[in-house]
Automatic annotation (TrEMBL):
Residues 428-573 form the Protease Do-like PDZ domain. Residues 321-421 form the PDZ domain. SUPFAM superfamilies: PDZ domain-like, Trypsin-like serine proteases. This is Protease Do-like PDZ domain-containing protein.
């Protein structure tokens, strides 16, 4: 707005985890635990012009390089987020043999490959910076596979903000219209179905296998960039642990494999050597110090999604324990909290005021066990032979509304609680979950709520560096004090005579209106619309205020809406 410079955040020492739409272009650190790009970003290059829309899934013309794009770097110089596949040929990885007897492998895996379909989606994303309109639609393609009950699974990011979804069977020239049954944002899984009976002729559902062990062979099947026919890559399971799900902004169980996962592989199944599905390909790590690191959603997460849908008639999400905790590895710390030498656990730092746990748990409580499983001082629990895993895995096995037995140490006393688990609600949501953004306009002031998609729309993929420090602090550390609390900001000011002198306000939080605190956007809109005072007074962050004459402000709003071709002064969700 004018020459007003937005306040910038400080760049962290390690690169931030990237979302699916915006792969990192030049990470400056060699940290290996950050996911910089994912399986559905473009293979050609990640350094496109900021004005060019990156496609989700496989681009329509993989061989055509838009202006300003470079060719992919060679394999040995895969740095800064560039992809490591030289050329356009994607096939079976020569590094790992799927099985000693190829004929036996074909007999088991090849029939299951007929259940893999190609997913075509047309997306129309909301415009969070101009919330009364949507962006230009674009197309993508990805992979999916058939399961029981005439259903198809794919990735959630493959059908995010969908307008139309179509499926094509292997070897077919017909695309069938699909219906989206459920989208699991956190676990990055979506469930589809097709009404046309012709689609299901000759289709057999994929059978799910057990969670694989380390070094088990896996085969990823899908329709990645490089061609139109089905593609197969193979590798082994390299790691099993709690992973950061980039699209869902959550941490769930995941598999790391060394099979190539490229743009368009998203949603494709990963088979074991028996032809059973052990996961869904969904993201990969692209970094100068890493090669062939792909990630797969394992069967426990997939089955949780499917059973959640069947049990509740829709997706309800993964519950969490609404606390932040600290490791208890220091012996002096354990002694000071009254822990005995044989006791282990983690200390509660903060509790979400809106979570059910806030009624029984207290800060500085030490969680000793969850559902009868003892928690170690580093926050891990036994997983399998020779393996440990974060205790959040135990929580993710539950469903929203389930009860869990928690044993805590408080003032040297052991207490037991039965807690009802719920899904997590953030002050700044990570996703809009398909809902259009809310907005309210008065006298040219555009009020909206802050979310991660909004920050990305305003500041680009580097919003964690570019957004105002106060907003970033609330994103990372603030908890909602009530279930309906939102962070309301002045997004921009549509210039008019009535708002002279206020033009430079941008992305500044609204704290109060006429002395009343602003809890959410709906409460602000209600207070402004019903105001009969002579003046409208908005208290903003940084000790700034906005004062407008009530009668002239409301009268000027209609002219401003007409000038900017805005259909309504408020979004539909605020009218009800």
């Amino acid at each position: 707005m004018g020459d007003n410079k937005r306040k910038r955040g400080r760049k962290p020492k390690t690169p931030a985890t990237e979302t699916l739409d915006h792969p990192a272009t030049s990470p400056s650190s060699t940290a290996m635990d950050d996911v910089f790009s994912v399986g559905n970003v473009e293979l050609i290059d990640t350094t496109a012009s900021p004005h060019h829309r990156r496609l989700r899934g496989r681009p329509n013309k993989p061989h055509a390089l838009p202006p300003g794009r470079r060719h992919a770097r060679p394999l040995d110089t895969n740095g800064g987020g560039d992809f490591s596949v030289p050329g356009d040929v994607v096939g079976v990885s020569p590094a790992v043999s799927t099985e000693a007897d190829p004929a036996a492998w074909e007999a088991r895996v090849l029939p299951a490959m007929d259940s893999v379909v190609k997913v075509f989606c047309v997306h129309t994303e909301p415009n969070f910076s101009l919330p009364w309109q949507r962006k230009r639609q674009y197309s993508s393609s990805s992979s999916g596979f058939v399961i029981g009950g005439r259903r198809v699974l794919t990735n959630a990011h493959s059908v995010e903000h969908y307008t139309q979804v179509k499926l094509k069977k292997r070897g077919s020239d017909t695309k069938y219209l699909a219906t989206v049954l459920a989208i699991g944002t956190e676990c990055d899984i979506a469930m589809l179905t097709v009404d046309d009976d012709e689609f299901w002729q000759g289709m057999s559902p994929v059978e799910f296998g057990e969670l694989p062990t380390l070094q088990d062979a896996v085969t990823v099947v899908g329709y990645p960039i490089g061609g139109d026919t089905i593609s197969v890559t193979s590798g082994v399971v390299s790691r099993i642990e709690i992973l950061s799900y980039v699209h869902g902004s959550t941490e769930l169980l995941g598999l790391q494999i060394d099979a190539a996962i490229n743009s368009g592989n998203s949603g494709g199944p990963a088979f074991n050597d028996k032809g059973n599905c052990v996961g869904i390909a969904f993201q990969s790590l692209k970094h100068e110090d890493a090669e062939n690191i792909g990630y797969v959603i394992p069967t426990p997460v997939i089955m949780h999604f499917i059973q959640d849908y069947e049990k509740n008639g829709g997706y309800t999400g993964f519950p969490i324990l609404g606390v932040e905790w600290q490791k208890m590895e220091n012996p002096d710390l354990r002694m000071a909290t009254g822990m005995k030498p044989d006791q282990k656990g983690v200390r509660i730092r903060r509790i979400d005021p809106t979570a059910p746990e806030s009624k029984v748990l207290k800060p500085s409580d030490v969680i000793l066990s969850f559902d009868g499983v003892d928690i170690a001082n580093d926050g891990t629990v036994p997983f399998r032979h020779g393996e440990r895993i974060g205790f959040s895995y135990l929580i993710s096995q539950k469903y929203t509304g389930d009860n869990a037995a928690i044993k805590v140490l408080r003032n040297s006393d052991i207490l037991k609680f039965d807690i009802k688990l719920d899904s997590h609600r953030r002050l700044i949501p990570a996703h809009s979950k398909g809902k259009p953004p809310s907005y309210y306009i008065i006298a040219g002031f555009v009020f909206t709520t802050v979310s991660v998609p909004y920050l990305r729309s305003e500041y680009g993929k580097d919003y964690e560096y570019e957004a105002p420090v106060k907003l970033l602090d609330k994103l990372l550390h603030s908890m909602p004090q009530s279930p309906d609390e939102q962070l309301v900001v002045v997004s921009q000011v549509l210039v008019a005579d009535i708002n002279i002198g206020y033009e430079d306000f941008v992305n500044t939080q609204v704290l109060a209106f006429n002395g009343q605190p602003v809890k959410n956007l709906k409460s602000l809109a209600t207070m402004v619309e019903s105001c009969n005072d002579e003046y409208l007074k908005f208290d903003l962050d940084y000790d700034q205020i906005v004062v407008l004459r009530t009668k002239t402000a409301k009268a000027a709003t209609l002219d401003i809406l007409s000038t900017h071709c805005i259909p309504s002064a408020m979004s539909d969700d605020l009218k009800s």
